[in-house]
Design brief:
It is a single chain. The chain has about 120 residues and is mainly alpha-helical. Helices cover about 65% and strands about 5% of the residues. It has a two-stranded antiparallel sheet. Helix 1 runs antiparallel to helix 2 and helix 2 packs antiparallel against helix 3. The longest helix has about 35 residues. The protein starts with 7 loop residues before the first strand and ends with a helix.
Length: about 120
């Protein structure tokens, strides 16, 4: 399944307002890049949530510190992996949409993605 924007000619009935390029994309329809993988993302987040609950249980049961830290590391890696996937989808969908339309929007989306990457690197 491709995550690139799905351009539709602006003349298509019910396609809504277009851009200067005359193309209406999923992004114009309010569909985010992760939409096509939403159920998979939710499943993944529920697994991570379970890992966090496991951490709480480990602390409550006075588990050895290093064992807890191992689980923290696994949970952190799972969240980082999720974030990278979401970033990839953002680049393929939102940034690609802005590139398709051109203008100042592409600069704004690239800056936004760069700032998100910088935040991820700080953690």
């Amino acid at each position: 399944m491709s995550l690139t924007p799905d351009p539709v000619p602006a003349s298509e009935p019910g396609s809504g307002p277009g851009s200067a390029s005359g193309v209406v994309t999923d992004h114009d329809r309010g569909i985010h890049g992760y939409h096509h993988e939403k159920q998979e993302h939710l499943k993944r987040l529920r697994r991570i949530e379970g890992q966090i609950r496991g951490l709480q249980r480990m602390v409550d049961e006075d588990v050895y510190c290093i064992d807890i830290l191992t689980q923290v590391s696994a949970s952190t890696k799972a969240l980082q992996s999720f974030a990278l996937r979401l970033l990839e989808e953002h680049l393929r969908h939102c940034v690609a949409d802005a590139a398709l339309k051109g203008g100042d929007e592409i600069d704004a989306k690239v800056k936004e993605a760069t700032q998100a990457i910088a935040r991820m690197l700080r953690t």
